[in-house]
Design goal:
Length: 558
């Protein structure tokens, strides 16, 4: 059906320069206020297993310890250095992660609005920021302050620097390169975001909707090469300098073993242990992205092609695709991994109602001119149903979170102990009881050792691990070397802690590839079992944690 050009010119959504650029600040303030209100329930978040690991390691780094040599985890080092200012500012409080998440959502909401407005207009910017906030909140505390959230934030800041048109081109490109380098050190595969950084700020996509279609740069090739060279130099400097730091500080050998030997073994093991990996991967991706979101992306592309607006959607789609590749290249698909693409997917989904609104107005105007009142009413009923479809689930999730927030305001400690959506293996209530016990019965100089995956006990009890293994994941895993288990036994024999906490019901098969929990694994670990039997006595049994104390005749705690 052909459209009346005069109607299209009158009713089509404004170009990316803005729906009344003079009012853009009003849209921005409305966006930030809405995002803040939606994000407020995040304040009730407890510190999860991943975040507690980051906190414990960051605290150790602040005290002069070295990554991998003195503090073990299998992730790249960047996230721990980002946590250092956080633990310095907030200290050992449970609500730290919630505050960080609220601040993150407001800042990322600003960048989502600015980026979306550039291509799709201010209303789409508002909807994209709100939609992403609701998606992120759906992930609860598991998605808060994770490496992926820092990655997308740094990518947005880098792209913001690259797309500015003011002075300081060389400095801005060098700084953007440093940010992309930081992204690499948070997760190595996230370095893929550098690729769209080479082209996106200079790509002219307006001819994508022409016949024949083509892509071109908005500046001469020589100038482009110079800017890309500066961007690459900033990236490479940020990648190389930490390697030199590891070498000079005696960490190189530990870094190579953990990151270049053991980490690839861990990454590849999922392919060995899942013969149906392809089917599992496709189904898990669909569950995390949700079918209606996948359908919305397809609809957005179809609508953009029909409206000849692919040029406006292409830059956003390029970043969404890059974020998706960053996620899938990890071979595992934890829900928070998709944070690297969700902000851009939210922009694409926000395009659908904006474009459909314009099209429905076109048809409504035609029906009004033909005096087809009933058809016009039914048309808007259909539009309302399209817009309404994803809202109930998102609204219900936020209402539940708001109820949890009010419970937290009324009694924070009780809300943590009876948290509504805890991760099964974390046993928050039991952890908090153990923490209270340690604070009561352990002296200021007494060490504790947690045999399990509960680093929150170290952090909130203000205790440091007596060895480099903050959790025991590497020690009970199929991919962990036997030499590490021997290392732990030597450390505990040399410097026995006053208390040893043994976790139960904490098996994470998808990481360790053993069905045994920490307590059960002692049968496979005679060295540690012998230490517990000979030198310790059980002082506090529990369903999820057993507490052992060094016998009076045992060796003194260091």
């Amino acid at each position: 059906m052909e459209q009346d050009p005069s109607i299209i010119a009158e009713l089509a959504p404004p170009a990316a320069e803005g729906l009344s650029e003079k009012k853009s600040h009003v849209w921005l303030l409305l966006t930030l206020a809405t995002v803040f209100l939606l994000a407020l329930p995040s304040l009730r978040y407890p510190i999860g297993r991943d975040q507690a690991t980051h906190c414990v390691i960051a605290t150790g780094l602040l005290k002069g310890k070295q990554m991998y040599r003195d503090l073990w985890d299998n992730r790249p080092p960047g996230i721990y250095y980002l946590y250092m200012p956080l633990v310095s500012i907030f200290g050992r409080v449970m609500w730290m992660i919630g505050v960080v998440d609220v601040l993150y959502l407001v800042v990322i909401g600003f960048f989502i609005f600015r980026f979306t407005k550039r291509y799709l207009g201010a209303p789409a910017g508002l909807m994209a920021a709100v939609l992403y906030t609701l998606w992120h909140e759906h992930g609860d505390y598991e998605s808060a302050a994770q490496p992926e959230t820092f990655i997308v934030l740094l990518v947005f800041i880098a792209d913001y620097l690259l797309m500015r048109k003011d002075r300081g081109t060389v400095l801005r490109h060098a700084a953007a390169g440093v940010l992309f380098g930081a992204v690499f050190w948070i997760k190595y595969n996230a370095g893929l975001f550098l690729v769209p950084g080479f082209f996106l700020p200079y790509l002219d996509t307006t001819r994508l909707d022409a016949k024949p279609w083509r892509l071109s740069l908005t500046l001469p090739w020589k100038t482009w090469f110079k800017r890309v060279a500066v961007l690459s130099a900033g990236f490479m400097a940020t990648v190389v300098l930490p390697l030199g730091y590891f070498w000079l500080n005696g960490v190189w050998r530990a870094f190579v073993q953990v990151q270049l030997v053991v980490l690839p073994r861990y990454a590849a093991m999922i392919l060995e242990r899942k013969p149906e990996y392809g089917v599992w991967a496709l189904s898990t991706i669909s569950i995390n992205l949700r079918p209606w979101v996948e359908a919305s992306v397809a609809i957005a592309l179809a609508v953009a092609w029909w409206r000849r607006e692919l040029g406006r959607l292409a830059p956003i789609f390029l970043l969404a695709l890059t974020g998706f590749l960053v996620t899938t290249s990890q071979l595992r698909f934890n829900s928070y991994y998709f944070e690297t693409c969700l902000p851009f997917v939210a922009m694409i989904c926000a395009y659908v109602p904006v474009a459909l609104w314009a099209e429905f107005r076109v048809f409504s105007t035609k029906l009004r001119r033909r005096k087809m009142t009933l058809a016009r009413v039914l048309l808007w009923v259909a539009f309302a149903n399209i817009v309404y479809f994803p809202l109930p689930r998102l609204a219900l999730t936020w209402i539940q979170q708001a109820q949890g927030f009010f419970a937290w305001v009324h009694n924070p400690e009780q809300s943590y102990e009876h948290y509504w959506w805890p991760e099964k293996v974390e046993h928050l209530r039991s952890q908090l009881r153990v923490i209270r016990y340690i604070k009561t019965y352990a002296g200021a100089n007494d060490q504790i050792f947690v045999w399990g995956t509960a680093p929150l006990i170290y952090y909130l009890a203000d205790k440091e691990p007596p060895n480099r293994f903050v959790t025991n994941l590497a020690l009970i895993s199929a991919w962990g070397p036997e030499s590490w288990r021997q290392e732990l036994v030597r450390d505990l024999e040399h410097s026995p802690p006053r208390f040893i906490i043994v976790a139960r019901h904490d098996a994470i098969y998808g990481i360790t590839y053993t069905p045994l929990d920490s307590a059960q694994y002692l049968r496979e670990y005679p060295g540690l079992a012998r230490i517990l039997q000979d030198d310790y006595q059980e002082v506090r049994p529990g369903r999820n944690f057993l507490i052992y104390r060094l016998r009076p005749a045992g060796r003194a705690s260091s």
